[in-house]
Q: What sequence folds into this?
């Protein structure tokens, strides 16, 4: 019989980490301010995109076009609802599917090249998507963009969830979306896939000679990231009730990248989550100051600080691990499992 | 056709032939030593056999199936594993993680099963952890299981390289100078282990500079010089051939 025991070195950090998550979940109980909730809802969108970036980076590829998949998801859902007259829920689902299929097709061609070449190609892919959105007037309304409707109310007996009345339903929808994404990514990370992804970045040649087919796993990572980034994009479009070619371009791709790196790509879930929430919330409040472009300075400053003081793929999340290592007086090499392990 | 066969294999880099017109057959269960002076194409031979390079011409057959031109992962999947001349490791991984990742080919469950953590996957995972720990015990890496691989000393990193290659459960093991930079005792430890591995039915192809190791282990030896096979046969006999002595050992005799 297995004797179950509680490893406090794992459990205590988890309990402490659960507190802010619990607070996040219950915020609407204390405040239904549209302003505050919107900021958290929007940072959720970037959390998902940043997780996708981190997953691709896990396989050793540096994608500079993740915002394009948000745009694809957003436009897919917007076109389906506005042009084809679909209702929100099926078109939201299709947004992820379409984004995933495009990631699969693009990925199986583009992932053959490595390193900087992949970055350049994904960067151009992002620009291609933007230019297409701008010029396919008939489908995308060009620069004016599309105005996707808010989700239809969900009626459960006498109880009705109305997305037009307040942002609280959006809030919980977002939390659910982030939770599902985290769960999938967490599960991928601790399954054999996680180790395989890691091995490709850690030593591609050695991994290949151990029987791991490079392309297969890169495409899996790229596609899974594409699917969830597509969902995030569709949510973004429907929440803001607009999608234009200018909303999701190169600067947004760079933001996604910076959020991941600042949070720390050593963990697939917790790092991007911390990075995206922190940077997005800070940048929203900072951009209210009467200084032009200060949020860009925040992103630039944060990434420089992290690269200098926390190199080699570590980020803010590793400070957390380091802190608990100090608390339990563990040697440096002993890895305390992070929240997502 | 023999177990593993190379027919007229040539690999050119530009106009330089690293190996030229190599014919070599390997029998199942033997330890084949490959020797030659520096730059004679020994490592290129292994690199061509595992598709690190594609041969310029000629073909390689494994169990009657042509394997030259296949992807490296396909060749590994057929049961041909290799070590590298330098200490190539998974950066940032511990010893256990490195070997667990390398046991990729031992899984029969697919990715979806591993994602969903089905019972079949968990059982298999436990079994493979057991196998990997046994392997680490055999190669005396057990005490370092949870240490980062990059922190090991050179000798242990060489052993880890062998552990990584063995983790895939190969039928043929290609060892590229497993005892470089080792003292006599360490080298003898490697010899003992290669013998143990060979006794479990793994065919071993061994590139080696250390004559003691080679003569201890090899059942057959092939000698390369400037990319051309100049001799092949029993170790003691080959080592006494005139052309081998001239090419490889100078004018001195062993």
A:
């Amino acid at each position: 019989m297995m004797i179950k025991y509680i490893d406090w070195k794992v459990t205590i950090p988890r309990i402490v980490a659960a507190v802010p998550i619990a607070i996040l979940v219950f915020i609407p109980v204390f405040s239904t301010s549209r302003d505050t909730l919107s900021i958290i809802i929007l940072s959720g969108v970037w959390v998902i995109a940043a997780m996708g970036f981190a997953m691709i980076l896990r396989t050793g590829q540096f994608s500079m076009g993740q915002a394009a998949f948000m745009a694809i998801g957003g436009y897919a859902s917007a076109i389906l609802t506005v042009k084809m007259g679909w209702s929100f829920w099926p078109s939201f689902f299709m947004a992820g599917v379409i984004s995933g299929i495009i990631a699969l097709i693009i990925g199986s061609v583009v992932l053959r090249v490595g390193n900087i070449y992949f970055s350049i190609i994904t960067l151009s892919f992002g620009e291609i998507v933007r230019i297409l959105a701008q010029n396919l007037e008939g489908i995308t309304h060009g620069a004016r963009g599309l105005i996707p409707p808010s989700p239809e109310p969900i009626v459960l007996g006498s109880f009705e969830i109305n997305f037009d009345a307040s942002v609280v339903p959006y809030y919980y929808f977002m939390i659910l979306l982030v939770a599902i994404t985290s769960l999938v990514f967490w599960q991928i990370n601790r399954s054999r896939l996680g180790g395989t992804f890691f091995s490709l970045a850690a030593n591609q040649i050695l991994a290949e000679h151990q029987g791991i087919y490079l392309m297969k796993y890169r495409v899996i990572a790229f596609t899974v990231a594409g699917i969830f980034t597509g969902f995030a994009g569709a949510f973004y479009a429907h929440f803001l009730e607009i999608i234009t070619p200018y909303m999701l371009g190169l600067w947004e791709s760079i933001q996604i990248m910076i959020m991941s790196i600042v949070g720390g790509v050593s963990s697939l879930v917790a790092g991007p989550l911390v990075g995206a929430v922190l940077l997005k919330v800070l940048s929203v409040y900072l951009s209210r100051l009467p200084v032009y472009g200060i949020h860009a300075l925040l992103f630039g400053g944060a990434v420089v600080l992290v690269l200098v003081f926390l190199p080699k793929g570590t980020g803010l999340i590793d400070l957390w691990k380091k802190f608990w290592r100090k608390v339990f007086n563990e040697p440096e090499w002993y890895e305390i499992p992070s929240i997502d392990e | 056709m023999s177990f593993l066969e190379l027919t007229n294999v040539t690999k050119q880099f530009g106009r330089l032939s690293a190996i030229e017109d190599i014919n070599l057959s390997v029998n199942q269960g033997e330890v084949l030593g490959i020797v030659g002076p520096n730059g004679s194409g020994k490592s290129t031979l292994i690199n061509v056999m595992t598709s690190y390079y594609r041969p310029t011409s000629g073909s390689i057959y494994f169990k009657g199936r042509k394997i030259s031109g296949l992807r490296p992962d396909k060749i590994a999947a057929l049961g041909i594993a290799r070590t590298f001349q330098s200490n190539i490791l998974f950066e940032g991984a511990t010893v256990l993680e490195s070997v667990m990742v390398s046991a990729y080919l031992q899984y029969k469950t697919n990715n979806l099963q591993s994602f969903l953590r089905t019972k079949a996957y968990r059982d298999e995972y436990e079994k493979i952890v057991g196998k990997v720990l046994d392997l680490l015990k055999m190669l005396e890496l057990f005490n370092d299981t949870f240490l980062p691989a990059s922190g090991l000393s050179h000798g242990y990193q060489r052993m880890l390289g062998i552990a990584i290659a063995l983790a895939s459960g190969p039928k043929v093991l290609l060892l590229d100078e497993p005892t470089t930079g080792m003292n006599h005792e360490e080298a003898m430890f490697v010899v003992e282990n290669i013998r143990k591995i060979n006794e479990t039915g793994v065919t071993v192809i061994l590139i080696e500079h250390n004559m003691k190791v080679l003569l201890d282990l090899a059942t057959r030896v092939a000698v390369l010089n400037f990319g051309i096979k100049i001799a092949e046969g029993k170790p003691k006999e080959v080592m006494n051939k005139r052309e081998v002595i001239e090419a490889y050992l100078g004018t001195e005799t062993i």
Observations:
- Confidence is low (pLDDT under 50) at residues 336-341 of chain A.
- The CA atoms of residues 22 and 80 of chain A lie 35 Å apart.
